[in-house]
Amino acid sequence: MADAGDPNARAVTRARMTGKERRLQLVDVGRRLFAEKGFEGTSVEEIAAKAGVSKPVVYEHFGGKEGLYAVVVDREIEVLLERMTASLTSRNPRQLAEQAALALLEYIETNTDGFRILVRDSPVAGSTGGFASLISDVASQVEHIMVAQFKAGGFDPKLAPMYAQMLVGMVALTGQWWLDVRKPKRTEVAAHLVNLAWNGLAHLEAKPTLRTIDRVPLKSARPRRAPGEA
């Protein structure tokens, strides 16, 4: 047994993490590795080594790689969905489209690792919601606003859900492309997205600009707790 008076023993004691701290550390380590190598390319051995623990510790907290991946995906879905829904404040349909596009592109720019994880396919995507489910959730937030606009314009409000899926899906797919190229800057990408959605190919503006000029930038913060933890 180590001598309690040994300074090295005291240092080890101080450095020992609580179960909650260890869980958060493993989630952060897993997030980085899954973003870099994908689900299949990441092993429990590598996760444990990067975290400075043994493999059984990973299994103790998450039951395996699948459990850790599910928690990582849930965290990212929570962040992105919160940002997207919080951004949809306008009742104006064009500004609504701008807000949705800007929020997603901003998330991609500030949470690149998280977005890479969300857009990758994995064996556990179905159980954790996955990117398609996330986009559907965001579209449902847009839908209720589009219903009102359809009614006001004399269009069939039953078509609003379909158009909401089209709009959000277009923004999401463009975001996947922009993830790697990062050109032009996000405000220009958003302006061109809305240009196509609003005007259609037959009436594109040569140099589109955003109408949303009073939008408060979203903060790039990730939750420090895994879902279900107090």
Brief summary of the model shown:
By secondary structure, this protein is mostly helical. 70% of the residues lie in helices and 0% in strands.
Descriptive overview:
With about 230 residues, the chain is an all-alpha fold. The chain has one domain (about 10-205): Orthogonal Bundle (Tetracycline Repressor, domain 2). It is built from eleven helices and no strands. It is elongated, with a radius of gyration of 22 Å.
The CATH topology: Tetracycline Repressor, domain 2
Topology order in helix (H) and strand (E) letters: HHHHHHHHHHH
Gross geometry:
elongated
The span between the termini is 35 Å
Beta percentage is under 5%
How many strands? 0
Derived structural class: mainly alpha
Largest β-sheet summary: none
Fraction of residues in H or I helices: over 70%
Rg for CA atoms? 22 Å
**Spans with pLDDT under 50 lasting ≥5 residues?**
7-14, 215-230
CATH architecture: Orthogonal Bundle
Number of helices: 11
Total domain count: 1
CATH class: Mainly Alpha
Mean pLDDT figure: 80
CATH superfamily: Tetracycline Repressor, domain 2
Features:
Tetracycline Repressor, domain 2, 230 residues, disordered C terminus, mainly alpha, 0% strand, 11 helices
Write the topology of this structure:
Blueprint lengths: L6 H9 L3 H23 L2 H8 L3 H8 L2 H23 L5 H18 L1 H8 L5 H4 L1 H24 L6 H22 L4 H14 L31
Helix pairs in contact: 2-3, 2-5, 2-7, 4-5, 5-6, 5-7, 5-9, 6-7, 6-10, 6-11, 9-10, 10-11
